[in-house]
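Exercise 7. Given the encoded structure of a 42-residue chain, write a plausible sequence.
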C-alpha cells in the first residue's frame, strides 16, 4: 500500500519525491510491526 500511495504521487512530486514518500511511509509500518505501536518503545 505504501508503494502504491507513493506511485500515485509520482506525477506531482517526480521520482525523488516518490522515493521519499515511499521511504518515509515504510518507517511507521516497520515500527508498528516490530514494536506493536508507533512510538518505537517496547
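Solution.
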Amino acid at each position: 500500500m505504501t508503494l502504491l500511495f507513493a506511485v500515485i504521487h509520482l506525477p506531482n512530486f517526480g521520482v525523488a519525491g516518490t522515493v521519499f514518500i515511499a521511504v518515509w511511509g515504510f518507517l511507521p509500518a516497520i515500527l508498528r510491526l516490530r514494536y506493536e505501536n508507533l512510538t518505537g518503545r517496547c
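Remark. The chain has a mean pLDDT of 90. Students should compare their own answers with the one above.
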